[in-house]
Amino acid sequence: MGRFNENVIAKIEQDLQVKLPDSYKRILLKYPFPPESDAAYYDFYGDSEVILEDNKYYRDNGFSGHPWLPHHFIIGNDGTGDIFFIDLTHDDPKVFKAHQNSVPEKSFVTREEAESLYQFIQQIQERTEEFEEEEPTDLEENKKPKKRENSWE
Question: Is the pLDDT of residue 105 over 60?
Answer without folding.
Answer: no
